[in-house]
């Protein structure tokens, strides 16, 4: 089991199982919501994700037609996003984990949207948008 929490340690969540995939995301929406060059999200089964404390503090924002992001109302920590066409998956903001997820980032996605002030300096695969589905 993996545990995570928001910045003020009020909202807590648990993932029963392993992160299935993990990518650095360079899309402009992730950049905005994280206030950083990119975000890092890991996919887990919806059934494996549960909020264990302060669920009432979670606010949701639909950042595009099919994507809903969840964050702490008090400290602003980005927690998860969901993609409507894939209701069986939830993406967890890896930076909010309190445990080592085990898995390491597998690549850069939406690399075509990279911030002009940021450069990728590792050798992970880069994809303009989504990676090809395994
Ligand atoms: Zn918080």
Index terms:
mainly beta; seven-stranded mixed beta sheet; three-stranded antiparallel beta sheet; 1 helix; 5% helix; globular; binds zinc ion
User: What's the main sheet like?
Assistant: 7 strands, mixed
The number of helices is 1
Helix content: under 10%
Number of strands: 10
**What ranges have pLDDT less than 50 throughout 5 or more consecutive residues?**
none
Instruction: Compute the separation of the termini in Å.
Output: 25 Å
Class by helix and strand content? Answer: mainly beta
Task: Tell me the Rg in angstroms.
Answer: 14 Å
Shape designation: globular
Bound molecules: zinc ion
SSE pattern: EEEHEEEEEEE
Strand fraction band? 35-45%
On the 0 to 100 scale, the average pLDDT is 96
Reading side by side through the largest sheet, how are the strands ordered? 6-7-8-9-4-3-10
Give a quick summary of the entry:
The chain is built from 1 helix and 10 strands; from the N terminus they run βββαβββββββ. The protein has one helix spanning 28-34, and strands at residues 2-5, 12-15, 21-25, 39-45, 49-53, 58-64, 67-72, 78-83, 89-93, 108-109.
């Amino acid at each position: 089991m993996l545990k995570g929490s928001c910045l003020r340690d009020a909202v807590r969540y648990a993932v029963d199982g392993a992160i299935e995939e993990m990518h650095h995301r360079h899309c402009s929406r992730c950049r905005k919501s994280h206030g950083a060059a990119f975000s890092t999200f890991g996919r887990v089964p919806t059934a494996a994700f549960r909020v264990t404390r302060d669920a009432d503090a979670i606010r949701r924002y639909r950042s595009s037609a099919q994507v809903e992001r969840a964050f702490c109302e008090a400290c602003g920590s980005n927690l998860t996003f969901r993609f409507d066409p894939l209701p069986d998956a939830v993406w967890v903001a890896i930076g909010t984990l309190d445990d080592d997820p085990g898995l390491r980032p597998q690549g850069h996605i939406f690399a075509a949207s990279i911030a002009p002030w940021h450069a990728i300096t590792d050798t992970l695969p880069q994809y303009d948008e989504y990676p090809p589905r395994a």
